[in-house]
Amino acid sequence: MSAAESSPDGNAAAPRMKNDMGARFHAWLMSHAGPRYDAFTAERKRALLGGLRGNILEIGPGTGPNLRYYSRGNSWIGVEPNAHMDRHLARAITDAGVAAVIRHGYAERLPVEDASQDAVVSTLVLCSVVSPEQVLNEIRRVLKPGGQFVFLEHVAAPLGTRLRKVQRWLRPIEMWIGNGCHPDRETWQAIEAAGFARVEIEHFRLPLAHVAPQIAGRAIK
Ligand SMILES: C[S@@+](CC[C@H](N)C(=O)[O-])C[C@H]1O[C@@H](n2cnc3c(N)ncnc32)[C@H](O)[C@@H]1O
Prior knowledge:
about 25% strand; alpha/beta; binds S-adenosylmethionine; about 35% helix; 5 helices
């Protein structure tokens, strides 16, 4: 079951983002490029997402490639600002058979109560949010004590490397194509500094050109 709702904080702008053409293009791009990324990460996603139970909130679920990894019986909320993702997301929800609600909104202001979620999930989202620090604060706010933030993100290459320079040059292009994506973000530093009780981060690479460096892991509140 799914329902697309506007965020209850009155964020009426969410269903139509400022750059609507970019948002529409990004939904198209993710629906085509997503399966390739998923093929590289399926095993990691199974390990990270398959064991989650209870109330799960996913920020920026996009076209919904993660839904198939959750076990049935959980309650899932997706907080997604791009309404052009809705029809892809609705299909993924139906295929997965998960009890799900889509809320149009931004991860900087999550439309749920304090300490209400067993898990918060982010895959390829912290590169795009306006303020990773604010989003991580929100994630800690909505997690129950002992709840976990699970992430899989592409990140900056090591400083001083050629790849890091390429990521910097590509940033303006990625900001448009990726609808706000920063390819050279040191996201692991923000997660480590966010005040979680425990953080487990694996750094690894995928054969994906300028977005090869990746991190995956969990942070426990
Ligand atoms: C690269 S896509 C990743 C989508 C999906 N998580 C995946 O793994 O395929 C980035 C997603 O983050 C969403 N997004 C961007 N800024 C956001 C924000 N501030 N809050 C929540 N989602 C955001 C985009 O609309 C998009 O769906």
